[in-house]
Design a protein that fits this description.
five-stranded mixed beta sheet; 24 strands; about 20% strand; binds 2-(butylsulfanyl)adenosine
């Protein structure tokens, strides 16, 4: 390059102009498109050169200088896609009896006593997609979204191996195929192992991994992941050239689309039942997760006659498998310490393949659960994995207990800090009394503090918090806000040296800058998020919201708590005496008050703003959430509902106005259907609150 010492003013001005443009381009690629093309070292070099030139020629600093720019660029969202033919879901059944009922109801509806021919297809546990071909050219891909409006994933589908971009044969002018994108069990394990090594987020199951890989604004990430897909139905088609589901499957297969080799035709009830049993036997040896079987009336004319209920066809149903189980040895019972000091036992298992996923830990819930099931270290145990749920120990095989295994003694001292662990009367959990002097509690509190529903600081993931805590970089929440200052290069007179976070493994100027920006942004925080962030026992996001609504400002809340003014607190619908006691105790702990006061010097807690929209559809209504939500966490969804003036209840009754049903909703959904309660999807809910 050139020699900065001898550079002329004109050359410097040219160079600064060049650098401003280059750095901006690199920033856009990094922040906006998630697709950096410079590595950290190359980028740093540009920034350092820019800084050096500006130091030498301060009068040449440009208005658009990278050193003046603050704030990362905002990511764009997925484009929306209108689905002309909605993508529906299926009703679930769980037993042979329900299957018989289903077949009967189909026959009754058609007024037929003859056997009806069905297809039986493995129910792929992935993410549904829709792909529209116009004149044989792949022109638009979409997720299911709310069924009517999906997200544009055209670029992501294009990079899946084997995804046809052109169809050679003559096909209908507008031809939309639908199916499932999924990740094989093997690819899931490989991806997680790689991510673990690189301290990146790991996925809890292949389905989540597939969803996380497909729904990427940057299709390059999708490309790096191994995704697969199959086709099982269609959407908009200008000229339907098949008369049955079987003919459709053969047609798409002839066009080169993958279809499931386990799809079958069933001519009568017995064949339907047998198809379930046989697939269930093969389930764990399949290379991908399936969570049941889909039965569809084969004949299209009969499908047309049967038609649809609100969200599901009458001609198809999903028969779900029970959770997958396996037997393995319990090698150890480890006791973990949580944010509030709760001691939670975890089973370390001889690693075992449960339906294709390697399981090495399972939850044991609490002390009593271990006693009740008489679980001992060394036992052979039955474990179970179901969808997103953490694997559980179901039971012990007592007859396999060879030696005289001793009963498990639950520790009465904290395994992390040695403080007494006590169990209050009528509480299921034993807790460490070490408070913040217990490192485990301190770390868990920090994780909570930066979590999404609290300060929401991206860049401070679990692993980073753990490392920073151990190294003494962040010990208390307040330390987060002095991080940037402590990272400045030391001046001549100071004995404190810079943290030099840029030099840490896996970090660089850009990631450090991003982190500081996230911290800066988090300093303005809503009252309810701040209350939640404090990590007071029993105070979840919903309670924090109720408190915020009641007290309006943090000061009035804190003063009331310091004065132990319990009356007002208990008058809040949803705050009981036990919770109130915890809250008051929290505020009368000197250490907590100290941290809060320090925090208030740097963060701005906004006063409660009130109900966001009194005209909203859910204002004054009682809502119940069920199933797994995909875009919001349960806590976020609850606090949003509250913010829009709804009451959130835990169970469905005649008083429920809305049930918001996520994926795999179970009994609450059925109850709502029975009672005729209005059921809406997560996407409908998001529309109401946006
Ligand atoms: S047919 C109108 N076939 O299950 C029926 N769905 O619970 C449209 N799924 O959203 C779906 N395998 O993501 C159909 N062989 C299969 C399937 C399948 C998995 C998923 C799909 C759908 C969900 C419904």
């Amino acid at each position: 390059m050139f020699d900065i010492k001898n550079i002329t003013e004109i050359e410097a001005a040219q160079q600064l102009e060049f650098l401003a443009k280059e750095i901006e381009k690199a920033d856009i690629a990094y922040y906006q498109n998630d697709a950096p093309y410079l590595d950290d070292a190359q980028y740093d070099k540009l920034r350092r050169l820019n800084d050096a030139l500006e130091a030498k020629f301060p009068h040449l600093i440009r208005d658009d200088s990278p050193s003046k720019r603050v704030g990362a660029l905002v990511k764009s969202e997925f484009k929306k896609v209108e689905l002309k033919v909605p993508m529906l879901s299926l009703a679930d059944i769980f037993s042979q009896e329900e299957l018989k009922d289903f077949i009967l109801s189909v026959k009754r509806f058609l007024n037929s006593s003859d056997d009806i021919v069905f297809t039986s297809e493995p129910k792929m546990d992935g993410l549904s997609f829709s792909a529209l071909y116009v004149n044989g050219i792949f022109s638009r891909g979409s997720t299911r979204g709310d069924g009517k409006i999906g997200e544009d994933i055209t670029e992501n589908l294009k990079v899946i191996k084997g995804f046809p971009l052109y169809l050679e044969k003559d096909v209908p002018e507008r031809f939309e195929v639908r199916g499932e994108v999924f990740m094989s069990k093997e690819d899931f394990l490989t991806l997680n192992a790689k991510n673990e090594e690189e301290h990146k987020k790991t996925f809890s199951n292949p389905r989540n991994a597939a969803a996380g890989s497909l729904r990427q604004l940057d299709a390059k990430i999708t490309q790096e992941r191994n995704l697969s897909f199959i086709v099982y139905t269609w959407g908009e088609v200008s000229d339907i050239r098949w008369n049955s589901q079987e003919e459709f499957l053969n047609y798409v297969a002839s066009l080169g689309f993958p279809v499931n080799p386990y799809n079958k035709i069933c001519h009568n009830d017995k064949e339907l039942m047998d198809s379930f049993d046989s697939l269930m036997m093969q389930r764990s040896s399949l290379p991908y997760d399936i969570d049941g079987i889909v039965y569809k009336v084969n004949d299209l004319e009969l499908q047309r006659r049967l038609g649809f209920l609100t969200r599901t066809p009458r001609w198809a149903i999903a028969h779900k498998f029970p959770a997958e189980q396996a037997i393995t040895r319990l090698n150890n019972i480890r006791v973990q310490v949580g944010r509030t000091g709760a001691l939670t036992p975890v089973a370390d298992l001889e690693p075992i393949n449960v339906g294709g996923v390697l399981v090495s830990h399972a939850t044991l819930h609490n002390e009593d659960e271990i006693k009740r099931k008489d679980i001992r270290v060394g036992d052979m145990v039955v474990i179970q994995r179901a969808g997103d749920v953490i694997p559980q120990v179901v039971s012990v095989l007592k007859d396999k207990r060879t030696d005289d295994l001793p009963e498990f003694q639950f520790p009465h001292f904290c395994p992390e800090c040695g403080a007494h662990a006590i169990r209050e009367e009528d509480e299921a959990v034993r807790r460490c009394t070490g408070g913040l002097s217990c490192p485990a509690q301190a770390v868990e509190r920090l994780k909570h503090f930066v979590s999404r529903e609290a300060f929401n600081i991206e860049g401070l993931g679990d692993k980073v918090i753990e490392d920073f805590y151990i190294e003494g970089i962040i010990k208390t929440p307040f330390d987060i806000f002095t991080l940037e200052q402590r990272n400045q290069p030391a001046d001549l007179f100071s004995s404190v040296s810079s943290l030099e976070l840029e030099k840490r493994e896996g970090w660089g100027t850009k990631s450090v800058k991003k982190l500081f920006e996230a911290i800066e942004k988090s300093k303005n925080i809503s009252l309810q998020k701040f209350i939640y962030a404090l990590g007071i026992r029993q105070v979840g996001a919903a309670t924090a919201y109720l408190i915020a609504r009641h007290y309006h400002s943090f000061n009035s809340f804190m003063n009331a708590m310091i004065q132990k003014d319990l009356q007002l607190l208990i008058s809040i619908d949803g705050v009981g005496p036990a919770m109130a006691k915890d809250i008051v105790e929290f505020f009368n702990e000197e250490h907590n008050l100290f941290i809060i006061r320090e925090l208030l010097k740097v963060v701005h807690v906004e006063d409660f703003e009130g109900i966001e929209n009194t005209n909203s559809e859910i204002f004054g209504k009682t809502v119940v959430f069920t199933g797994t939500l995909t875009s919001l966490t349960r806590n976020e969804a609850k606090s949003k509902a509250l913010a829009f003036g709804a009451k959130v209840a835990g169970s469905v009754s005649a008083h429920t106005d809305y049930v918001i049903a996520g994926e795999n909703a179970g009994s609450k959904l059925s109850k709502a259907q029975e009672l005729g309660v209005k059921i809406i999807s997560e996407d409908d809910f998001i529309k109401i609150i946006s």
